[in-house]
Amino acid sequence: MAVSFDKEGYLRVDASVLATLRLLVITSIAISLSIAAIGSRLFSVIRFESIIHEFDPWFNFRATKYLVNHTFYKFLNWFDDKTWYPLGRITGGTLYPGLMVTSAVISNLLNKLSLPVDIRNITVMLAPAFSTLTALSTYLFTYEVTSSTKTFKNNKTPALLSAAFIAIVPGYISRSVAGSYDNEAIAITLLMTTFYFWIKSVKLGSIFYASITSLFYFYMVSAWGGYVFITNMIPLHIFVLILMGRFDYKLYTSYCTWYALGTLMSMQIPFVRFSPIKSNDHISSFGVFGLLQLVIFANYFKTILSPKLFNNFMIAFGTIILSLGLIFLIFATKFGWIAPWTGRFYSLWDTNYAKVHIPIIASVSEHQPTPWSSFYFDLNYLIWCFPFGVYLCFNDLSNESIFVIIYSVLGSYFAGVMIRLMLTLAPIVCVCGSLTIGKLIQIYLDIKLYLKEKNEKKEDYNNKENITNLSNLISKLLIILTMIFYLFFYVQHCIWVNSNAYSSPSVVLASKNRDGSAAIIDDFREAYYWLRMNTEEDSKVMAWWDYGYQIGGMADRTTFVDNNTWNNTHIATVGKAMSVNETNSEIVMRKLGVDYVLVIFGGLLGYSGDDLNKFLWMIRISEGIWPEEVNERSFFTDKGEYRIDELATDSMKDSLMYKMSYYKFGEMFQNRDPVDRVRQQRLSSKYANEIHLDILEEVFTSENWLVRIYKLKEEDNFGRSLVEIGDKERSEEGKSKRSKRLQTKKRPNLDLRV
Amino acid sequence: MARKDVKGVKKVSVKEIPAVEKPFNKSTTTTTTTTTSSKISWYEELSKSIDTALIQYKKDLASSRRLRLIDTFLAFLMISGIVQFAFCILGGSNPFNTFLSGFGACVGQFVLTVALRVQSFDKNPEIAFGEYIFASLLLHFVLVHFMNQLA
Lengths: 754, 151
Fold this sequence. Notes:
Subunit structure (chain B): Component of the oligosaccharyltransferase (OST) complex.
Number of strands of chain A: 11
Oligomer: heterodimer
Order of helices and strands of chain B: HHHHH
Transmembrane segments (chain B): 73-92, 98-116, 128-147
GO cellular component, one term (chain B): oligosaccharyltransferase complex
Helix content of chain A: 55-70%
Family (chain B): Belongs to the DAD/OST2 family.
Protein name (chain B): Dolichyl-diphosphooligosaccharide--protein glycosyltransferase subunit OST2
Distance between the termini of chain A: 73 Å
């Protein structure tokens, strides 16, 4: 009998039934967590459609399509001549293929199972699917950390809580909503899985688990450049443990196995290639690898020699090794065997570095330092549970807890430096937060303890005890209710943030009509579709690099620069073409081979992420290469204002970007003064009508003026310059003012080739 | 066979180490009492400690066939690695990935074997050996793939 009543009337349940029940409960928790994780990421699909978001995902999507339509080897050898015209990009060798391969494998698998799912849907849903796996790996990670501690022995509460936290934490959702098909979508899963196997292998000292760690590390390397975080976290963990005198052979077996296998595996990725042995980013892992060899060697002597002898021996041994290592390092850097630190690395330590030296890194909004408020916004109340969780780890100080502490410290630092690294902080905040809440639950909500006490006190029952019991109960209830309120509030906050802040595809914009009904602004796709349908297939479109991937992915046209910002000079060239006057710009554009120019203009709609707001970055980047032709100061008025109305400086008014943005802007407002709704400045109607363009002709302007496309005019047959012709026409036009009246509003020819 | 060997090693290591250490400890205490300034004895001490380590190492080797086997393999890997490295410096590292995979095979296998060696006194040497084979297979699978890849 599995369930029975014993003589005293107590219910007796068989252990196997309890175990089954426990499994059932945990499984149902896992399933509901998965549903919550996926569900909260689907806002954008429901509100808009199943579409790829933002910028980078469009490239990943395009690459995935290439992989699915070609073979894997063709993918690795892919030379893309449709980007970075005329240079092209060795795409196969300069990307992290993990993401594309993952979705290609899933797609093939589904096809084998006779479930032909469109590749677009797979890529859109990949991030939510992996978020459930992240919850699972976080659960395992936390369980591995807590199961060895005294406080949480065999207690799954923190583990389950951490899984629940990570499932809906906004800091992670920001990079993993449906449609945000980016490397980070799978990288966080792999990060947590790698860490889980790592602490497991340290705990057991097992070569097998270390090999599994390196396998996941390999997957991580193939998926995201952030793998360097793991490459430095694990050696740091080992290093700290050695400094604490925790060395035993388990550290050696796990670390050396991971390092040897992981490094060799990471070199299989074409983009990484030899950097694990050449770049300084990886040197700490190599250093610790060497250190461990010495330590295990010394450890052998420790078992044989007396402490005093060993001490002297170590001093002699240590000085020799240290000096040798230093000399080697100095020579290696001097002779260029080791590559110097990269700019992205410097900007991790010195937040001002990028601003001063590399405008292209500083210009990316996600590389900005994190404002304080976004910590609360992205992590909610977990951010103040976080320090207490770290404190609990300090109380415990097992090898695993030390790992959590190191991760917390590094994660917090990096999250403070760059807003996008909030992503790597989020998992550890969830883990530490769950430790805090788990501890609270253990103290105030342990029913087992309560029942035990009740049983013991049953015999000697008196009034005094009853009162203390009551106050005890009230205080407990108070804390539990507060805690439950916060948990509830957390869920609410997360859902609100996910729905309002992180679920916009940014390719399609949502707004509201005056009557409150939802309106969808689909200008981007309208324009890209126009390009796709109305231009020659080999025409080259010049736009700022932000839109390179989208033009490639949606319009399928050749671009000059894109979000893979590998060539700063090329970007500066495009920036120069945008920021100098028409005559000079024409020279640049003819040399580049531009056919069309695409510009984003938000002045009519009030879309603040438009090109005029990014214009300063274009100027800065091109000033870095041509300081005598482009000067940032000359775009500001004497008062230091960034003006675009009549008071704007001449270089501003003459720049191609300015002209492209406001060309015919006045016509939209008939005879009223046009207002730029982004920069909140009013242009007089007379001035606005005077803005003219000679070297370009307008071919397309989207419904809300968000995207404007111009075509570079053919060179004049008689060899006159286009600006000259324009000037001449204007002066004739000025003589006969009547002709201006007759001029009808010229709209672009919109006959679509469908 | 293997299990017996390990037990033998265990017994020897437990018995022998204190036997070596005890007289040694005495000798150090006597030296420190006799010679107060220890500038010359410092060097002597060093060579002495290396000597004792060597003696102990030889004893360990003599007692276990398995240790002999592992250490021979380690020596082979080390020599092979050194030869490859020397060749790389003298003859050039032109197919760099080929050199790396050859050298990596030596280093990786060396490290794995050392990991096996320290584990061979463990409770479950069979499991350790199984894991060792798994990791080695993985290592060489990767290396074979890497060997002829075009850079």
